[in-house]
# Entry
Amino acid sequence: MMMTTTLTYRGVQYEYVPPAVRSEATDVVAKYRGWNYHCTHAVNPPAQPVRDLIYRGVVYRTGQTEAVNTTATTAANTAKEVNMPALDLNQLSRVILTHHHQVIKNREQSLLTRMIAQMGLPAAAGHYWNQIQGKIKPHVWTSYDRSHATMS
# Structure
């Protein structure tokens, strides 16, 4: 029995014909939510397509177990070193302040998650869109940090 499906992708229609896979029954019986299911396995599984792909500069081939020769592509993918200028004092202080602010927000989110667990509420209660806004007054920051001696 040949099944075709008409699909549309970005306004272009095409017919997809899934590959026919022969299967045969096995003696394995699985149980799921009280129902028994008889398992089958593919006699001749369809071959996977072979494609040459690049992910983050690494060449690999799908459907192949041996390594791909990358000597030709490594010369093309070598990046030229760029000397980055050192951060000036204003940029450095901004980076440190932003990191400090993010650490405080993460700590508050952790405390909120623990509190929700202790109260017995579902875990989804702490996963709302804007979790912790992190609006902490600057004069509180000096005493708001955790102590380096604590294990929290």
Q: What stands out?
A: The mean pLDDT is 75. Residues 89-119 form the longest helix (31 residues).
